[in-house]
Design a protein that fits this description.
By secondary structure, the chain is mostly helical. It has 15 helices and two strands. A hairpin with a 3-residue loop joins strand 1 and strand 2. Helix 1 runs antiparallel to helix 11 and helix 5 runs antiparallel to helix 13. The protein starts with a helix and ends in an 8-residue tail after the last helix.
Length: 472
């Protein structure tokens, strides 16, 4: 009876909080609008002799800035740490003991596999010269034409082109790794390798070109995605949902106890994700300056808010807050602020973080009602969090924060919310349909799942003949 009462109180408070949030949106909008940036007055030139207008000075050639380069290379290392050890520990602690090494291995080997794929053809498909606004060309295969000592002004004018390339490589790596949370504890390692390579090539690379590549149709449409809410989190989260449907439930799901075997490991992984995410978001400014600072601040603020929101929601619903819930809430906040991090101010980031905590926790709660086994809640956190973050960008984006962006709904531009919706829909369709096709092809040719005996034994022994812990 007390549990039912707590659940009713939670639902009521959630509804009330939603109403209150909408009421204060106008206040938040006014507060963010006041956060204007001070710009230097334009330079003036003396009149030319005879009263003729001054001749326009030739544009200076792009010049590599050592500070910007150092920041982007450091950010690349931070994003690498998000996958290994961050995600590897976060996911590794949430599975059962017999699948610890198998789960960690998936994140680690993706770092190796996609790093090579990105150099050989992935970067060219994602960011190479545009082909029909859908995909990049093959001109940069093997990094041909991607200079180590010259910038590419289309993407980053003050850092070497290869610095930008390796920064983007780390985004491709972690996107594929995030999907593994959906099929943890039951996918064949050989099939996992083939899936990861095909998914990166046919889903991630085209979507990255749509949103970020020069000439991509969503970029041309005006979609805003500062650091990957659409490209990284919607694509991985929705693909995770497709994996859960196609691969099916774990053996004994709903009947056996499948609690995380090492929560300290999971919290350590979440903390590493939080740490590395500053490179993910602030590094996406591709320069060490005011915009990177703003992205850093809102990333931390939204993450902290989301962890608190998830904790409060769980406390009200279950009667006690959990460590796993707080860690999951922090990750949800990181996900949601990612697309907006370069376009919103601190007050807006609090609303985005609070929404992430409540919406993602709600998505995890209703999972069982839909009958799918998303083992580590990749869809609930990344799919829902990324969708909320992308739409929230359309609500709270402000040119006062980033003049190269656009104003959102609450700053006089309701059309931006529609553009964000189109981008979200496109990412959902490509990710779900494309992933479904890839999985079916692999299942028909080599099979997706381990046998029942191997699943019962655990992936550590059945796939790698190793144990995570010595029994001495």
């Amino acid at each position: 009876m007390k549990t039912i009462l707590r659940q009713r109180v939670f639902v009521s408070l959630l509804m009330v909080s939603g109403i209150v949030a909408w009421m204060i949106l106008g206040v938040v909008a006014n507060g963010v609008m006041a956060q204007t940036t001070t710009e230097a007055p334009p330079a003036t030139s003396a009149p030319a002799p005879g009263g003729a207008p001054p001749a326009a000075a030739p544009a200076p050639p792009p010049k590599i800035d050592s500070g910007d380069t150092a920041w982007v290379l450091t950010s690349s290392a931070l994003v690498l740490a998000m996958t290994a050890p961050g995600l590897a520990l976060f996911y590794g602690g949430m599975v059962r003991e017999k699948n610890t090494l198998g789960t960690i291995m998936q994140s680690f080997i993706i770092l190796c596999l996609i790093s090579v794929q990105w150099v050989l053809w992935g970067y060219s498909l994602a960011f190479g010269p545009d082909k029909s606004h859908i995909i990049g060309g093959l001109e940069w295969v093997g990094l041909a034409g991607v200079a180590m000592d010259q910038p590419n002004a289309d993407y980053a004018a003050t850092i070497p082109h290869q610095a930008y390339m390796i920064f983007q490589a780390m985004f491709a790596v972690i996107t594929v790794a995030l999907i593994t949370g959906a099929f943890a504890e039951r996918m064949k390692f050989s099939s996992f390798l083939v899936f990861s390579l095909l998914w990166a090539t046919f889903i991630y690379d085209p979507l990255a070109h749509w949103v970020w590549g020069v000439g991509g149709w969503l970029r041309n449409l005006g979609a805003l995605d500062f650091a990957g809410g659409t490209v990284v989190h919607i694509s991985s989260g929705v693909s995770a949902l497709a994996c859960a449907f196609v691969i099916g439930k774990r053996r004994g799901y709903g009947k056996e106890h499948m609690a995380p075997h090492n929560l300290p490991m999971t919290v350590l992984g979440a903390s590493m994700l939080w740490f590395g995410w500053f490179g993910f978001n602030a590094g996406s400014a591709v320069a060490a300056g005011a915009l990177a600072t703003s992205a850093f601040v809102v990333t931390n603020t939204a993450t902290a808010t989301a962890a608190l929101a998830w904790m409060v929601g769980e406390w009200l619903y279950r009667g006690k807050p959990t460590v796993l819930g707080a860690a999951s809430g922090a990750v949800a906040g990181l996900v949601a602020i990612t697309p907006a991090s370069g376009f919103v101010g601190p007050l807006s980031s609090i609303i985005i973080g609070a929404g992430a905590g409540f919406f993602c926790y709600g998505a995890v709660l209703v999972k069982s009602r839909f009958g799918y086994d998303d083992s580590l809640d990749a869809f609930g956190v990344h799919g829902i969090g990324g969708t909320w973050g992308a739409l929230a960008t359309g609500l709270f984006a402000s040119k006062a924060i980033n003049s190269a962006g656009a104003d959102g709904f609450f700053f006089g531009n309701p059309g931006q919310l529609w553009i964000q919706f189109v981008a979200v829909l496109a990412a959902w369709v490509l990710a779900f349909v494309g992933t479904f096709i890839i999985l079916k092809v692999i299942d028909w040719t080599m099979g997706l799942r381990v046998t029942d005996e191997d699943e019962q034994l655990g992936l550590d022994l059945s796939q790698h003949e190793e144990r995570a812990y010595s029994k001495g």
